Amino acid sequence: MAKLWTALLTELFLLLGTSGYYNERRSQCLYSSRDLNDMVYIDSYIFNKIEWIRFNSTVGKYVGYTKFGIYNAELWNNDTAFVQQEQNDVEAFCKHNAEIYYSQIMDKTVEPNVNLMSLKQASGSQPAMLMCSAYNFYPKKIKVSWLRDGKPVTSDITSTEELADGDWYYQIHSHLEYTPKSGEKISCVVEHASFQKPMVYDWDPSLPESERNKVAIGASGLVLGIILSAAGFIYYKRKSSRPY
Ligand SMILES: *[C@@H]1O[C@H](CO)[C@@H](O)[C@H](O)[C@H]1NC(C)=O
Ligand SMILES: *[C@@H]1O[C@H](CO)[C@@H](O)[C@H](O)[C@H]1NC(C)=O
């Protein structure tokens, strides 16, 4: 009867969320090199936050941390087939899955779309500002730098961090402040795993396309106007010189 009551009370506590039991088995694959040579497999058993037994593939057996754990470690370590199976998981579980993560995600690269634009024209003593943006690249690691007449620029550069778009892709923006000199060449250099070599993007100081279109439309209007006025003038001249 007492047992039943305890069971009911336990259920009640679980329902109320004030108490309960938390049983956890945590399998970890720890590695730091791409060739997976330093792979370690850790298999932990945890009860109410207390890890009571752990298999560590470097040690090659179970180690107990509580009285119950020490007892079970001796028992489980006596079963060589069981221990061997855990040891095999370095290959069968850890390395196998790590290879999948590398081939499906981590080894993949996506080229950035690079855009170079003017943020500010120079005016008076105020320097001009260019922005070099790289969009939609993967992985995160990237280097954006600047060249002035082929020489690396070391000052007056500010850059954002690599910003996560939230869809595995990243973007970054680098700003260069400079006082324009006529005839000089400014370039943005982007280095990324998706490129065979550093990519150089030269700044074209002529007007951007939208500005060029406005100029073209304006010039066409002017030409049309001149032609129509000339035609009108000729028509007027002919008509007025005709004898009545
Ligand atoms: C696994 O065992 C090795 C060798 O004793 C030790 O250096 C390492 O810290 C252990 N790793 C864990 C997570 O217990
Ligand atoms: C484990 O094996 C050893 C030697 O075969 C034996 O003495 C010991 O009692 C065993 N331990 C358990 C918990 O079965």
UniProtKB/TrEMBL annotation:
Signal peptide extent: 1-20
Alphabetical list of Gene3D superfamilies matching this protein: Class II Histocompatibility Antigen, M Beta Chain, Chain B, domain 1, Immunoglobulins
GO terms classed as biological process: antigen processing and presentation; immune response
Keyword annotations from UniProtKB, A to Z: Disulfide bond, Glycoprotein, Membrane, Signal, Transmembrane, Transmembrane helix
Subcellular compartments: Membrane
Superkingdom per UniProt: Eukaryota
Topology versus the membrane: Single-pass type I membrane protein
Record Pfam families: C1-set, MHC_II_beta
Listed GO CC annotations: MHC class II protein complex
InterPro entries on file: Ig-like_dom (IPR007110), Ig-like_dom_sf (IPR036179), Ig-like_fold (IPR013783), Ig_C1-set (IPR003597), MHC/Immunoglobulin (IPR050160), MHC_I/II-like_Ag-recog (IPR011162), MHC_II_a/b_N (IPR014745), MHC_II_b_N (IPR000353)
Segments forming domain Ig-like: 112-200
SUPFAM superfamilies linked to this entry: Immunoglobulin (SSF48726), MHC antigen-recognition domain (SSF54452)
Residues spanning the membrane: 215-236
Annotated protein name in UniProt: Major histocompatibility complex class II DHB
Organism: Electrophorus electricus
Gene, per the UniProt record: LOC113568076
